[in-house]
Amino acid sequence: MPIWQKPISLELLNAGSKGTALESLGVEFTEIGDDFLRARVPVDKRTVQPYGLLHGGVSVVLAESLGSSGAHFSSPQGHRAVGLDINANHLRSARSGWVTGVTRPLHRGKTTQVWHIDLVNDEGELVCVSRITMAMLLPRG
Q1: 44 close to 34: Cβ distance less than 8 angstroms
Q2: Which ranges does the record mark as transmembrane (predicted)?
């Protein structure tokens, strides 16, 4: 059974990236499952550090975008999700191609959510693992 409580589509997710860091970095949302989101980022001149490797900060941008989007769309209408904490363990470098992330919830509570994110290279090798904790804010009123 899908966890999404707000209307969600790839068109909506990608349109929300217009004019943001995600658009500048070339991030694309590619799949919505019943309990996961998938997005990818190219490893190119926009996203590498001076040594030609995917910048660790770009991995964190992808992870945070996935976890934040998951928390937002899986919460009731009017509720907002804001990041409290994110961590990332960089396990392998990427020099070309795409890095793809998948996020799934570990905990979806009334006041916090915790999401796990795995990032892999084109060969399916784990590049980074991340976890984000989100504060869930009640509707204003």
Answers
A1: no
A2: none
Residue 3 placed within a domain: no
Q: Which residues are catalytic?
A: 64
Is 1 a member of any domain? no
Phi and psi at residue 107, to the nearest 5°:
-150, 130
Task: Give burial (CB, 10 Å; 0-12/13-18/19+) of 141.
Answer: exposed
What's phi and psi for 25, nearest 5 deg?
Answer: -90, -10
Strand locations in 34-121 (E)? 37-42, 80-90, 98-108, 112-120
- pLDDT tens per residue across span 35-75: 999 999 999 999 999 999 999 999 999 999 999 999 999 99
pTM for the whole structure: 0.96
- CATH code where residue 64 lies: 3.10.129.10
